[in-house]
Write a sequence for this structure.
C-alpha cells in the first residue's frame, strides 16, 4: 500500500465511487469533464467526497477524490477547489437532504430528453419504468447553472423520502441514495427506463401503460429484491479489475 493511500480515509467508499465514475463513462452517461458524483462521509452529510474539478470520469481514481465541506465557502478556494456548480448543487443536497448520502448528477441522453419534454413524467410502461413509479420529483423551475441558490432550490424539492430521483427540467437528472451501489444502480436503471419510454414514443403507437396498482406493486417488489445494487457494483468492479483498471489506485 503506498503512502498516499495510507493517509486517506474512507478507502472502500472511494473505490466504489471511482468504479461508478469509470462505468458511467463507459456507458456514455457522462458529460465530458462536467457532471459530478458525491458521497457523504460524516454523520450529518455535510462533508463529502466528490470528483476533482474538470477531470474526465474515465480517468478518475480513488485517490483523486477530494473532500468537500458543504458548510465552508472557503472550500471554493485553493488548488483542490471543486467546480463551483458542483459545490452549489451537491453542497445543497448534502446540507439540506440528510438521507441523501450519495448524489449523482448527469446529463445522460435519454434522461435529459425526458427532462426536455413539456410533460416529463415517466409512465409505467415496463418493469424498469415501474421501478420509479411515484418515486421521482420533477423540477420545472430551471434557473441557470447550479450555483448555491439553485442548489438549495433543488434540494428543497426532495420533500418525500420515497422520491430518490429528480428529473431536472431543461437540465438532466439527479439521483440520490444511501450508498454508492444503491445510487449507481438507480442511475443505471433510470436511464434504461427513460430510453425505453423515449423509444416507445418514437414509434408513434399507443403506449401500453400499466395500472397504478400493478406499477406500485412492482416498485415495492423491486425495492425488496435482495442485494441487486451491491451485486451489480461488485460485478462492475470485478470486470474493471480483470482489465487491469487503475480506478482503485
Amino acid at each position: 500500500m503506498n503512502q498516499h493511500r495510507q493517509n486517506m480515509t474512507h478507502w472502500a467508499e472511494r473505490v466504489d465511487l471511482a468504479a461508478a465514475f469509470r462505468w458511467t463513462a463507459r456507458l456514455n452517461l457522462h458529460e465530458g469533464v462536467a457532471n459530478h458524483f458525491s458521497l457523504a462521509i460524516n454523520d450529518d452529510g455535510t462533508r463529502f467526497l466528490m470528483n476533482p474539478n474538470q477531470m474526465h470520469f474515465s480517468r478518475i481514481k480513488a485517490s483523486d477524490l477530494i473532500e468537500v465541506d458543504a458548510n465552508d465557502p472557503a472550500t471554493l478556494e485553493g488548488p483542490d477547489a471543486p467546480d463551483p456548480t458542483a459545490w452549489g448543487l451537491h453542497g445543497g443536497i448534502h446540507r439540506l437532504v440528510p438521507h441523501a448520502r450519495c448524489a449523482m448528477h448527469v446529463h445522460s441522453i435519454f434522461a435529459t430528453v425526458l427532462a426536455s419534454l413539456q410533460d416529463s413524467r415517466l409512465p409505467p410502461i415496463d418493469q424498469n419504468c415501474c421501478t420509479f413509479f411515484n418515486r421521482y420529483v420533477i423540477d420545472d423551475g430551471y434557473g441557470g447553472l447550479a450555483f448555491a441558490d439553485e442548489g438549495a432550490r433543488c434540494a428543497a424539492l426532495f420533500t418525500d423520502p420515497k422520491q430518490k430521483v429528480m428529473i431536472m427540467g431543461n437540465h438532466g437528472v439527479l439521483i440520490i441514495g444511501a450508498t454508492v451501489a444503491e445510487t449507481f444502480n438507480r442511475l443505471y436503471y433510470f436511464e434504461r427506463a427513460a430510453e425505453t419510454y423515449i423509444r416507445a414514443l418514437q414509434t408513434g403507437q399507443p403506449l401500453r401503460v400499466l395500472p397504478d396498482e400493478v406499477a406500485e406493486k412492482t416498485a415495492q417488489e423491486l425495492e425488496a429484491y435482495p442485494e441487486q445494487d451491491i451485486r451489480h457494483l461488485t460485478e462492475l468492479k470485478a470486470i474493471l479489475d480483470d482489465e487491469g483498471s487503475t480506478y482503485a489506485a
Residues 180-202 form the longest helix (23 residues). The chain has a mean pLDDT of 94. The chain has nine helices and seven strands.
